[in-house]
Design brief:
Strand content: 15-25%
Bound molecules: uracil, calcium ion
Number of helices: 17
Distance between the termini: 37 Å
Strand order of the largest sheet: 3-2-1-4-5-13
Length: 438
């Protein structure tokens, strides 16, 4: 097989065989196929697309390029969730313990934050002592004991994706739906869960700006997962404003604890999205027969405190000091040198937000990283004081910045001011949950 012939075939818009796709991924992972040929192939895929069958073959070939987690020793249906990357998206810290409290088995592998989006591992590490780099044995032991644990992906999980993503990043081939879907799904399949709920974000803070693109990506990921023998559902959710009010690691832990304490109203966007993700996990896990039954169970686990207790256990078993989740001690995690309000420049209604800008503001304050491996400050970030649809007077706070290092303070402040749109006329806020694909 000559790889140039395979590139040519794809560039001519033809469908690649399973064998050709396997040859490509094996060759690229082993270093036999050079970067320039793979770059050309990625561009051909970006331009000509792939069928669901090709995308599934690509995903499975990528999955087998490295370690594949074996969770078969754990009983029942192993549940996972995955977000395509949001701002103020602390849903995992809420949903994972809640689903476990409902009897689910949640074995979750998470990532770190990059660019304007946050990562669950960084949030967990904001709680002193919490270890997200446990051995597979210890991970499974915790899941078996309390139904939930969250760890980082192993170093050798889908090496083909690490190499391809770095290449795509510098060859304008990131924005290809089959390449994104296979990148995400190869990691999810290699993580070993039987049932996966995806949260595909769309809007100004998301990878997929347009809803139709988000739906296409969601549809393809569900098809890939199903063809690979897993149960998959995808919620399409709105990123035209941050999901929670908090953006920053300890600040988002605090907001998750607030929700699990029953202190966040049920019509709040974060509450709403947590319910849709959690309910779909319960249904896939065979723990509820309908959306209504699933949501009722989740609510019960919030108001009884069982969900919060489960989060305590999880932190404790992962080596963290769970007493930091108590109301008085959690303040220690978000203690900063200065808290600075960003005033509204004018009167009016909040009609929209540039969510990415708000994520960037938090990053500028030290809550996120621009490049892999950069250090972050767990305490800093910002807490929004407004949502879409709110009325403000000039001078009212749009957000409160939590600041330790003032180097980028002016830039962060300006970023918040220009990322919240204020107009004279009220506009009905968009719904947060735009659909579920199964
Ligand atoms: N996230 C991924 O993991 N891969 C992509 O290609 C895009 C987003
Ligand atoms: Ca939040």
């Amino acid at each position: 097989m000559q790889f140039t012939d395979i590139i040519e075939k794809k560039a001519d818009g033809k469908e690649l065989s399973t064998e050709e796709i396997r040859f490509m991924i094996r060759g690229y992972t082993d270093g036999v196929i050079p970067d320039y040929q793979m770059a050309s192939m990625c561009m051909a895929i970006r331009q000509c697309g792939m069928t669901a069958r090709e995308s599934t073959d690509l995903t499975i070939a990528m999955m087998h390029s490295g370690d594949v987690a074996d969770l078969s020793d754990l009983p029942g249906i192993k549940l996972d969730k995955h977000s395509t990357g949001g701002v103020g998206d602390t849903t995992t810290l809420v949903v994972a313990p809640l689903v476990a409290a409902c009897g689910g088995t949640v074995a979750k592998m998470s990532g770190r934050g990059l660019g304007h989006t946050g990562g669950t591992l960084d949030k967990l590490e904001a709680i002193p002592g919490t270890d997200v780099e446990l051995s597979m044995e210890r991970f499974c032991e915790i899941v078996r004991t309390i139904g939930v644990a969250v760890i980082g992906q192993s170093e050798n999980l889908v090496p083909a994706d690490k190499k391809m993503y770095a290449l795509r990043d510098v060859t304008a081939t990131v924005r290809s739906i089959p390449l994104i879907a296979s990148s995400i799904m190869s990691k999810k399949l290699a993580s070993g869960a039987n049932a996966i709920v995806l949260d595909v974000k769309t809007g100004s803070g998301a990878f997929m700006r347009r809803q139709d693109e988000a739906e296409e990506l969601a549809r393809l990921m569900v098809d890939i997962g199903t063809m690979a023998g897993r149960k998959v559902r995808a919620a399409i959710t709105n990123m035209n404003q941050p999901l929670g009010m908090a953006i920053g690691n300890a600040l988002e832990v605090k907001e998750a604890v607030e929700l699990l304490s029953g202190n966040i109203p049920e019509n709040d966007p974060l509450f709403e999205v947590c319910m849709v993700l959690g309910a779909n996990m319960l249904e896939l896990g065979g723990l509820a027969r309908s959306k209504e039954e699933a949501e009722a169970k989740l609510r019960e686990k919030i108001y009884s405190g069982d969900g919060l207790r489960r989060l305590h256990w999880m932190i404790d078993m992962q080596g963290g000091d769970a007493s930091y989740l108590d109301p008085d001690r959690i303040e220690e995690l978000v203690a900063v040198r200065r808290r600075i309000a960003v005033p509204a420049p004018r009167d009016g209604y909040v009609t929209g937000m540039q969510t990415e800008g708000l994520g960037i503001a938090a990053r500028l304050l030290g809550a996120g990283r621009e490049t892999k491996g950069q250090a972050i400050d767990p305490a800093v970030g910002l807490v929004m004081q407004v949502r879409c649809g709110y009325h403000v007077d000039a001078g009212d706070p749009l957000a409160v910045l939590y600041v330790n290092d003032e180097r980028n303070l002016d830039e962060a402040e300006a970023m918040v001011r220009t990322s919240v749109f204020i107009e004279d006329d009220y506009r009905q806020p968009e719904p947060m949950v735009l659909g579920v694909i199964e």
